[in-house]
Amino acid sequence: MAKQFLIIDQHYAGQRIQGKRAYQEDDFGFDNSQPHDFLMVLADGLGGHYGGAYASNCAIQAFMDDYRTTTGTVSQRLQHALYQASYQLALETKVKPELHGMGCTFVGVALNDEEQLEWVSVGDSPLWLYDNAGRLHRLNADHSIKPFLQEQVQRGLLTPEAAARHPERNMLFSALTGGPMELVDTSPTPLELLPGDCLLLASDGLFTLSEEEITMILQQDLLAKELVQQLLVAVEDKLRWDQDNTTVLVVKIPNQLELFDHS
Description:
Blueprint: E1 2-4, E2 12-17, E3 26-31, E4 37-46, H1 49-69, H2 74-95, E5 103-112, E6 116-122, E7 127-130, E8 136-138, H3 146-154, H4 160-165, E9 185-186, E10 191-192, E11 198-202, H5 211-218, H6 224-237, E12 246-252, E13 260-262
Antiparallel strand pairs: 1-13, 2-12, 3-4, 4-5, 5-6, 6-9, 6-10, 7-8, 7-11, 11-12
């Protein structure tokens, strides 16, 4: 019998909203079918209506299919699956020229039943750990110009307002396009999670909220599904005229892992 160690809605959940965009380019997925492996993935599409949405969906399916069938360490499987997803995008672009220029950010996160976390990511979609001490940490690298702009603000060379309005603030140094990936971020070692920890994976639409606002929501004693809903409601309550697609995935590490048989 396989073992399921996380329960949907209670321990993990995901949802997306379209925001003020004319179309939805975000996509995500969970795989809780493996005996000792939990996988979650998120992609934020680039390249216009059809191309961005297609890239996100294609990359997620290729990644998840490859991860399930590849052998090796978790890190090796994550990286192999990422490059397989990139290869699949290249194939799709070759046979469908109208998809030229499509791409996506991508984050793949694997968690085993020993509460060890590993990830692979490209682009700017954030993966955070809200630890059981109430602190929010970004885990993966940001492959956009935002860290550079933030450094300029800290050095007094740019005001926060100017950084927020910078015409290239959304420029990416690396993305999943079917071509070479300039930057790929991986977990240096498996990260040991503790009971009470919470993982948050999102598309950049969640940046409408500050990390302080995100922390205030995550500190509540709620089910994963309820945390997802509260984060998205908080985004919508900002009433931004240019609100981007926003996807939120939450995984809560149970105080005692609940292992049970399932078919």
